[in-house]
Amino acid sequence: MKKISNHFLNRKTIISVMLFLSIAFFQLTSCKNGKKPKSEGINPVQSVTARAETKPVPRASTEDAADDPAIWINFSSPDSSRIIGTDKKGGLGVYDLDGKEVFYYNTGLMNNVDLRYSFPLASDTIDIMAVSNRTDQSVDLYKINKDGSLQVVHKKQLLSLMKEEVYGLCMYQSKISGKFYVFVDDKNGAVEQWELFADGDKVDGRIVRNLKLATQVEGMVADDGTATLYVGEEDKGIWKFNAEPSGSVDGELIPMSGEKDNQNIKYDIEGMAIYSLPEGEGYLVASSQGNSTYAFFERKAPNKYLGSISIISGDLIDGSEETDGLDVVNFAIGDRYPKGLLVVQDGSNKDNGIAAAQNYKIISWESVASKFTPALN
Ligand code: CA
Ligand code: CA
Ligand code: CA
Ligand code: CA
Ligand code: CA
Ligand code: CA
Predict the structure, then answer these.
(1) What is the distance in A from the centroid of ligand 3 to the CA of 232?
(2) What pLDDT is recorded for position 47?
(3) Among 48, 96, 128, 315, which residue is least crowded by beta carbons within 10 Å?
(4) What is the mean pLDDT of residues 259-272?
(5) pTM score > 0.85 for this model?
(6) Which CATH superfamily includes the segment(s) 41-369?
(7) Measured in angstroms, how far is the CA atom of residue 289 from the centroid of ligand 1?
(8) Is the pLDDT of residue 91 over 90?
(9) How far apart are the CA of 76 and the centre of ligand 4, in A?
(10) Ligand 4 center–CA 360 separation, angstroms
């Protein structure tokens, strides 16, 4: 009897010891592999409120219509700077910094928009804007006039050769050659790089490079200062490429830019923008559409993840949800925007608690920056 119970005790002890050892071994190897819990070292999402919102696009509240903004700084009169927003069901809206609509153009199904300053044309320079136009499967070019009105400036529409509809778009000006470019992508992961050039008093373009990503892309931004193109693969993360036409067609994935290794991100990755500071400093902002937040990374390599914010409802203005496009500028505009502003599309606009057509929210950079530890610049 005694012998048997000893035998049982021994087996129990051996099993316990083995269990203990295997847990200890698992923990040891996990640490050795550096596999920490996803949440460790990540700041929780901070919330801010918008300072203003634009007039809704002229669509029904049920339509997915507003998509992507661009901020145009009027350097001779900063208070008269403008926000240009696409309405992918019909055109382009131009808004002042309080969100009042100044112009609206029925130009077609305009998806993404971006701009650059001082494009040399004839004996002058113009502020130039590019838009992806799904009505004509083209990139359309506009001159931005002093009052923020828009004027077609392309010699002919730049007709895309991609198989799928034109989708995301951004501009790039090379600090190396001084040349201006437009990147446009489609839902199949294809990207065309167009070089722009003057032809008399109009602008024309030619394709100089093609890139290809594995799955659906849209949001893109180019950092002129570092010659980097960022492309958001919607269900993967943010890729960076050399933005020069002679650059490699191989991209590099930014760490913690996808939901697999960042609990604060939920697909899709959507619009992106760069907040530039001197000497390569600054931030990359990306819309994490699946959880209505915005992820912030350092601008300089290796693009360290800094944290995320959400834009919640304030006293007068509702928060922003399911954001597609966004833009940001580092330019002081009076007391309203002493460190610049962030503009985001709102997928679910409410006015006085009632569903309204989509619009754009305007947020002071100062209020965003103060939410980080340490504060952003
Ligand atoms: Ca949408
Ligand atoms: Ca844009
Ligand atoms: Ca998208
Ligand atoms: Ca979009
Ligand atoms: Ca909202
Ligand atoms: Ca509202």
Answers:
(1) 9
(2) 98
(3) 315
(4) 97
(5) yes
(6) TolB, C-terminal domain (2.120.10.30)
(7) 9
(8) yes
(9) 31
(10) 13
Torsion of Cα atoms, 236 then 240 then 246 then 250, to 10° = -40
Domain ranges for the chain, please list them: 1-37, 41-369
Cβ proximity of 127 and 173 under 8 Å: no
pLDDT, residue 60, reads 98
Residue 56 CA to ligand 5 centre (angstroms): 11
Ligand minimally distant from the alpha carbon of residue 112: 2
* Average pLDDT estimate for 242-257: 98
